[in-house]
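ok here's histidine kinase, seq below lol
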Amino acid sequence: MPSFWRATRFRVAVTAFAASAVVLGAVSVWFVLQARGRLETAAAQLAGAHADAIVQLLNTGARPGDLPLLVRDSIYEVKDQRGASLASCPVLREATLAAYDTDVTLRPYQYDRSALASVGCAPELRGLDDDLTLHVVHADSGDSKYEVFAGAQLDPEGQVAVDSARTVLAAGVPAVALLIGVIAWLAVRRSLRPVEAIRGEVAEIGAHDLGRRVPDPRTGDEIARRAGTMNTMLARLDEAVTRAEPVHLASPRAGGIATRTPEKHSGTPSPASPSRCP
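and the structure came out like this:
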């Protein structure tokens, strides 16, 4: 098992999986953020147009109490300089739209869609039984007497599309990254198969098997060049051994002279050796 974790194909597969997961994840996050940003930009533009329309009415002398009769299809809140709410659509309950170019979420119990003052924004609330999330834009009247906060919902269909894309990407990115890792595993294993064949053949070649050669994958790549270099080395070794063998075999027969290790003399002459005269 330890050798498995150190295997080249495993390390390459893990690297491919991690790299692809990071890249695909970053691209997916960027895509979702861009799509979300486009929805928020469209909502901000719509809310800004509603705020400008309400400011124009206030600048022409309309009172905040007249806005429910004059404004249609808009979600807004008008406050005075002290921050007191003067008019809103829908009628708010312990909630406010006071925000500056950001999102505000209203719970169903925080607004009253059945109130008479909520008639103007009834089309915006139709079919809505969940939280109301708005992108709110702030504007001031010409005399700075009133503060206007207008909100617009994100495009529901666009929001559904973004949510669906987020769900698909959250599940798809790991799956694609895993697939890339598996493909990398198989590709590396296939690429290293000739190397393993070369290693196995070299391991089986002994001192008397120098005539054997490693398999040549004939792929024209680095592995094929390594196999060629190995075969060239084996051929040189085989040639060197072949040239050396006759010399060792002919030496005893050619001279017929056996070498003998000199004996050590203990001081007593050997019986076979003649004595020297003084």
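fwiw The chain has six helices and seven strands. kinda neat tbh
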